[in-house]
């Protein structure tokens, strides 16, 4: 192969690489989520829980395959949790509410055809998350053993609920690692601004064990949110 052919191949590869890099876009995301859990006891009965609002902040990058398809990995800080009206086997006391924090890594496979003046956004992909902490509250004083709490305390994420968290009023919420599926439908204008509806459904059973005992009950995360994004 002569020098001219080598130079031509090198020039072609350079142009392709530059074109791909030029199409890569970062996107900053902010939104409001309504998070809940799906909790079932050993008989399959689902707990009557309700959603709590929280913020959703993320930074992602679009890696295009073509004009229509891209992969969008991101790193996200999300506030999650749930409410339990009345009394239940979930939580402590009456009207238990948990507000938690997660660091999440969603990877969306994005399809964005041109429709009207902008682009339709359809995305689906897996996510993995890690619980970092949070707070719980109830409407009354909580007594656990011979210790009385004033109706509030810290959230702990642990694989074994026997191990106490930070402080005596630490409630073991769930296992720290979560994973599941993320869905998104939205619309983008001018190639920079977009609004989307996001649905996230956990697959991982977050119910911690108690020493050598594995409860038959299950706990999984779920959420619904609205997100605005700016691409640059």
Radius of gyration over C-alpha positions, nearest whole angstrom:
23 Å
Query: What sort of overall outline do the alpha carbons produce when their principal axes are compared?
Result: elongated
Q: Largest sheet, if any?
A: 8 strands, antiparallel, barrel
Q: Strands of the largest sheet, in order across it?
A: 1-2-3-4-6-11-12-13
Q: Which spans have pLDDT < 50 for at least 5 consecutive residues?
A: 13-19
Number of strands: 13
The percent range for strand residues is over 45%
C-alpha end-to-end distance: 41 Å
SS content category: mainly beta
Mean pLDDT: 87
- Element-level helix/strand string: HEEEEEEEEEEEEE
The percent range for helix content is: under 10%
Structure annotation, total helices = 1
Could you explain the architecture of this structure?
With 232 residues, this protein is mainly beta. An eight-stranded antiparallel barrel has the order 1-2-3-4-6-11-12-13. Strands 7-8 form a two-stranded antiparallel ribbon. About 3% of the residues have low confidence. The radius of gyration is 23 Å and the shape is elongated. 9% of the residues lie in helices and 59% in strands. The chain contains one helix and 13 strands; from the N terminus they run αβββββββββββββ.
